[in-house]
Amino acid sequence: MTQTNTLVQQAESQCHLRGVRFTPIRRRVLEMIAENGGGLKAYDLLDKLSTEHAAARPPTIYRALEFLIDQGLVHRIESLNAYVACACPEHAHGFQLLICRHCGYVEELHLDEISEQLAALAKRRGFNVERQTIELQGLCQDCRTVSE
């Protein structure tokens, strides 16, 4: 079974447990993001989806992305305005992303202690954290090896 199939099956399971609809469009958008391996922009998704569904429009993609993000199945890469599949959607805590600036590879980390420390610090300062995004940009091992 491929990683994409595994992610889609996990998504189906999560949606069923939560009582939310995992529509064919939502499924296909998740598949396209998962198959890419790096971040995909909304209009790249629209281009791909419109070849399969002629009626696909920007709101179609944005509604699907909003649902997938709300369900913790996809993360938005803020610095690139792109989207990446969540490696472990059952994980309910914060995450961090390693992003290769050369090839676009994205890896998800789950260092809960970092997220918890930042949230605690913000709370002590009277700040209510609603969303936390930590992105680390640099070169992945493969790109570093090529450039050496």
What does this 3D model show about the protein?
- It is a single chain.
- With 148 residues, the chain is an alpha+beta fold.
- The chain has two domains: 83 residues, Winged helix-like DNA-binding domain superfamily/Winged helix DNA-binding domain (Arc Repressor Mutant, subunit A, Orthogonal Bundle); 52 residues, Ferric-uptake regulator, C-terminal dimerisarion domain (Dna Ligase, domain 1), CATH 3.30.1490.
- Helices cover 49% and strands 15% of the residues.
- Belongs to the Fur family.
- One of its GO terms (molecular function) is DNA-binding transcription factor activity.
Main attributes?
Dna Ligase, domain 1; alpha+beta; DNA-binding; two-stranded antiparallel ribbon; metal-binding; 148 residues; transcription cis-regulatory region binding; 3-stranded mixed sheet; Arc Repressor Mutant, subunit A; transcription
Q: What is the ordering of alpha helices and beta strands?
A: HHHHEEEEHEH
CATH homologous superfamily (4th level) name of the largest domain = Winged helix-like DNA-binding domain superfamily/Winged helix DNA-binding domain
Distance between the termini: 35 Å
Average pLDDT figure: 90
List the domain count as a whole number: 2
Number of strands: 5
Radius of gyration of CA atoms, rounded to a whole number: 16 Å
Helix content: 40-55%
The major sheet is characterized as: 3 strands, mixed
Cofactor: Zn(2+)
Family: Belongs to the Fur family.
Binding site for Zn(2+): 100, 103, 140, 143
Subcellular location: Cytoplasm
